[in-house]
Design a protein that fits this description.
By secondary structure, this protein is α+β, with helices and mostly antiparallel strands. It has seven helices and ten strands. The chain has a six-stranded antiparallel sheet with strand order 8-2-3-6-7-9. A two-stranded antiparallel ribbon has the order 1-10.
Length: about 240
């Protein structure tokens, strides 16, 4: 009677290698797909932008670092009727703001913003959690003195209507306001006496970053930006090619 040979069962090491290979392929495919999505940042929107006439012009800036962008706006603009001192009142801040002329507003992960004051405070566990798990967001608000164009400060000229649209966008991301209409503080932690953190709408993750928030604001204001702007370069690339006076 013929003997039927039994199929050998794969050993533990073979199974581990197979799953490791599948994991590596999935990891590579994920980042390859994400890399393709990053190309969307170089596709321009709002191509019809024109420099506003001098009689209908509000000057703002986009402040950028290696990984983050902020809107820098005049504290008060009589022409547009926008006044940020009501939304982010001076008494929330530890130092007198008598010399302040501009306010910088940026959106981001609460954990990363609040717990990472400097690069020395950065932890890999925090970075991975911020990128791959949707996390609570905050607005970082800082009062500034004089502001001038520079390598990290791109000037943007808006009409009064465009600036009102941008202001409405920023205000729409404030999660809570008190009885007086002021934004509600998220924490007592701050970087200096001139900045504070406020409760914000939205969850931060790899596909919804601080720079995408900036890009959405620029899009709403009618300023050239990328179709999808997860990185600083996607914001600055179009600003550097925006018409100027």
């Amino acid at each position: 009677m013929p003997v039927i040979a039994k199929k050998s069962q794969p050993n533990l090491w073979s199974r581990l290698r197979r799953w490791l290979w599948r994991g590596l392929c999935g990891f590579a495919l994920f980042w390859l797909t994400y890399g393709c999505f990053l190309l969307l940042g170089f596709i321009p929107v709002n191509r019809g932008y024109q420099v506003p006439h001098e009689d209908d012009r509000v000057r703002i800036f986009i402040r950028s670092s290696d990984i983050h962008t902020d809107f820098v706006m005049p504290i008060s603009s009589a022409e547009s009727g926008v006044d940020w001192s009501g939304m982010f009142p001076p008494h929330h801040f530890r130092a007198p703001l008598r010399g302040a002329k501009f306010v910088a507003v940026g959106w981001g992960s609460r954990g990363f913003f609040v717990e990472t004051k400097t690069w020395a405070d950065l932890r890999i566990s925090m970075l991975l959690r911020t990128l791959f798990t949707p996390s609570e967001s905050v607005l970082h608000v800082e009062y500034l003195g004089d502001v001038a164009p520079g390598p990290a400060m791109n000037e943007v000229l808006l009409t009064r209507h465009q600036y009102q649209e941008l202001a409405a966008f920023v205000q729409s991301t404030i999660r809570e306001q008190d009885a007086s209409g002021a934004a509600v503080l998220a924490t007592e932690v701050s970087y200096s006496d001139y900045d504070r953190f406020y409760l914000a709408c939205g969850r931060y993750h790899l596909f919804n970053t601080c720079n995408q928030w900036t890009g959405r604001g620029l899009y709403r204001a009618g300023v050239p930006t990328g179709l999808w702007t997860p990185l600083v370069v996607h914001v600055r690339w179009h600003l550097l090619r925006t018409p100027s006076p």
